[in-house]
Amino acid sequence: MTTTPERAAERDLAYDVFSRACPSRGTLEHVTGRWGALTLGALYDGSFRFNELRRRVDGVSEKMLSQTLHALERDGLVHREAHPTNPPRVDYELTELGRGVAERLMALIEFVEGRMDDVLAARGRYDETRGGR
Amino acid sequence: MTTTPERAAERDLAYDVFSRACPSRGTLEHVTGRWGALTLGALYDGSFRFNELRRRVDGVSEKMLSQTLHALERDGLVHREAHPTNPPRVDYELTELGRGVAERLMALIEFVEGRMDDVLAARGRYDETRGGR
């Protein structure tokens, strides 16, 4: 891990997601996109075959999961291992880099899951005062 | 914070982003969506007016920023403060809940920014062996 808690200073790195032209913005979108985040989160538990992953990431289509895995593999976050068995078996697992991303993503996911009662209460208050708009 | 490092056990909470019907999935999408993540990240630095935020979140349209702020406000992550000045002034800032989300999001963003050299190197290798597909 190359970052430190000194955020303001650290943010003056070569890469800055706040700049629209920075390539880090695209990678952030791959890892936080709807299916990217859930796929990395699922792989945090270990190695999966394609169909196992599809069951875990409830609601993803075959096409979207395939695209998501390709993008994550290209960014060096997921390793695809084709075993020369008959029938051939393909496993997906996190790389060291992908594990670092998934760890931070899971911290975010668990925080959100753990505070959903507060989120739903806030929504109720908002909809009451704003008339549901 | 209600989560602990015992991930597998903790994930058996009432809320589970991996289930498509769980409301936590929608909230995860609000906070990790393209503009949601950058808006929360920007507000992590303090309170902003609408136009200041728009400059910070490079590339966002007025309409998208407005929609993003409404969704984050409704989820209880952002507080909107309208000051009775002339002309009226509206400030946006994180709530305590929003700060908890933004902290974890910034840890993710900084990790990705800090490892972009590795990501770009992986992309180069992938495109070479796959012929750029």
UniProtKB/TrEMBL annotation, chains A, B:
Residues 22-120 form the HTH hxlR-type domain. The keyword Transport does not apply. Signal peptide: none annotated. Keywords: DNA-binding, Transcription, Transcription regulation. PROSITE patterns: HTH_HXLR (PS51118). It holds the Pfam family HxlR. The lineage of its organism: Bacteria, Bacillati, Actinomycetota, Actinomycetes, Kitasatosporales. This is Winged helix-turn-helix transcriptional regulator. InterPro entries: HTH_HxlR (IPR002577), WH-like_DNA-bd_sf (IPR036388), WH_DNA-bd_sf (IPR036390). It comes from Streptomyces flavalbus. It comes from the Bacteria.
